[in-house]
Structures are given as structure tokens and as C-alpha cells.
Amino acid sequence: KARRYAAHVLDVSGARAEKWLKNPADASLLDVGSAIGLFRAAAAEFGLSHYGIDVSTDAIEHCKNGFGFETWLGSIFDVEKHAKAGQKFNIITLWDVIEHLDRHLDALKYVTQFLSDDGVVVIRTPNLESMEATILGDMYYSYKLDHTSYFSVRSLNSMFEQVGLVPIHTETISHIFRGFLGVQHLYDAGKR
Questions:
Q1: Is 103 helix (H, G, I), strand (E, B) or coil?
Q2: Disulfide engineering: 6 pairs with which of 42, 139, 144, 168, CB 3.0-4.6 Å?
Q3: H or E element: which one contains 32?
Q4: DSSP summary character for residue 100
């Protein structure tokens, strides 16, 4: 799954990714909430330099033991403590992170200061207006106590605009209904 995500991020990044992959060691990625390092391992397979930050000491230890990767300890607001002066990243990922943050707009604004001029921010979060949320209502599996905020495509785009980011790709994917309706139908529905 992490390999698929890494390939997809590079694919939708278009010409920028082509440039990054010419000298992948010169391209860098910051994985916020990097957990046990699965996405970083996938990025490493493309040759990208990668960094991670996480609040869980257990996840950091597991990442070190499993992949040999050093991970910064802290929240999204602690990147500056660890990054080198002036360090910029071509890719900054927040996989299932933003819905856990109380200050999501401040967090996005903060982390974009570390984004290179040709960089992309990747956010994966449950979609409050997804087909699954609409059909399942109160039973939607992404309604969790540790999710402090919920987003729709519109609210994410509004947030991006407020921090000066321009969306280049948006999609909604249904995991549950894929088997019932088919991958292409769900892909087409998510692109609307």
C-alpha cells in the first residue's frame, strides 16, 4: 500500500517528480506522523531522501528497529527543532494526521514554510462528504474520538487557499464500496 501511495504521489506531481527522480537523493520528503516508517521505506525505494517526525516513541523505536530510519520526536510544530537551518522538502506528507490536530490551519501554515518552491503537500484524511459517510451516516467508521476535525474537499481547498497552496489533485476513494460498485465507478465518483 505504501509503495502504491509513493508511486501515486510521484505520478500526480507530474513534471516536478520527473525532475526529482533525475537526482532522487537531492529530493527530500518529510513524513509528518511517520509512524513505523512504511511510507518512508517506499520513498527510499525511489531513492528519495526522507525524514520523519512522530509523537510516539514506540513507533519511532519500531521504525528504527524495522527499517533503520532515524525519526524526529515531536509534533508537526516541532519540525524547526530538528530540521537544518533553511532546510526545505519537495514532498511533505500528512497521512491520516490532520484530523487529529486541534490547530489544523496553523499546522498547515507552519509546515508549508519548509516546502520547496516546487514542492507538494500531500494530505490523506477521511472525507466528511464521501459516499461512505453519506450512506453510513452515524455508523461511518471514520467517526472516532481521536479525530478532532473532519474535512470535505471544499473545506480542504479553502484551507489550502488560506495558506497559499494550490490543489493539484484531489480524489475520494471508498474502501468498503469498492467491491460492490467497482473501482472505476468509485474513482469516477470521487473525481467530481
A1: coil
A2: 42
A3: strand 28-32
A4: G
The whole-angstrom separation of Cα 96 and Cα 2 is 13
Q: Are 90 and 112 in contact (CB under 8 A)?
A: no
CA dist 151 and 167 (Å) reads: 15
Residue 85 three-state SS: coil
Q: Note the Cα 83 to chain centre separation in Å.
A: 18
**Alpha helices per DSSP H over 68-175:** 79-82, 104-112, 131-136, 153-163
Burial class of residue 189, CB neighbours in 10 A (0-12, 13-18, 19+): middle
Q: Given CA atoms 67, 70, 74, 75 in this order, what sign does their dihedral have?
A: negative
> Binning pLDDT at 50, 70 and 90, where does residue 81 land?
very high
Residue 77 has pLDDT above 70, yes or no: yes
Q: Provide the b/e sequence for 26-52 (b: ≥16 CB within 10 Å).
A: ebbbbbbbbbbbbbbbbbbebebebbb
Name the pairing type of β-strands 28-32 and 89-95. parallel
Its pTM stands at 0.85
